[in-house]
Amino acid sequence: MDLFDRFAGNDSWHTRKLLEYASTLTDEQLDRPLKAVVEILPWRESTKTLRQLLENIVFTKEIWTAALAGADVPNLGEGTPAAQRSPAAMLARLEKTDVEFHRIFRDVGKRGEWDATFVDALCEPAETFTFGGVFAHIITFNAHRRLMALDALRQLGVQVEGFGCPIEYELSVAPWNQEVPAK
To answer: pLDDT at residue 176 above 80?
Structure first.
């Protein structure tokens, strides 16, 4: 397991867990205004409810995966239809986009092209980014969103295990799961 596997795997694993926890909530709970809203991102995104936080996590992966693959995003300007914003629907969307997300970035890593650039034609005007910069961007801002969602779940009374740490992820999937003596 390399660093890409750890970061990307943790992001996917923790997002799945959050969506599974969220699936135990009512629509009223998912849409209840949060007590603490942290607006630190330099772009507009709504983070006033747990549903919005979870949607932002999934949509971020969808939009960047589409940009990396040179694909279009349906409803880009209108937002995700309500029918696709239930925890179960978001989980299905995550599973779908994760396949392509992981495929693209594993390929970038195998080629050693983290510093190579691509053109994001979804931006207006189109912009050029490095693969490594985009990967770090996705993981960084989704980690922020996941922690806010984790806090929101706890405020709603959900008994959440852990806190989404990459070490928790590693321990949950590690076939080696044994100590290596220090040198």
So the answer is: no
Both tokens assigned to 73: 């995003």
Burial 81-102 (b: 16+ CB within 10 A, else e): eeebbbbebbbebbeebbebbb
Cα radius of gyration (the chain) = 17
Q: Specify the pLDDT at position 181.
A: 58
| pTM (2 d.p.) | 0.89
Which helix H or strand E contains 161, and what residues bound it? none
Are 146 and 54 in contact, with CB atoms under 8 Å apart?
no
d(CA 68, CA 142): 17
Tens-place pLDDT, residues 51-101: 999 999 999 999 999 999 998 876 666 678 889 999 999 999 999 999 999
Helix axes 50-69, 131-155, angle to 10 degrees: 160
- Left (φ > 0), alpha (ψ -120 to 50) or beta: where does 127 sit? beta
| 131 CB neighbour count, 10 Å cutoff | 20
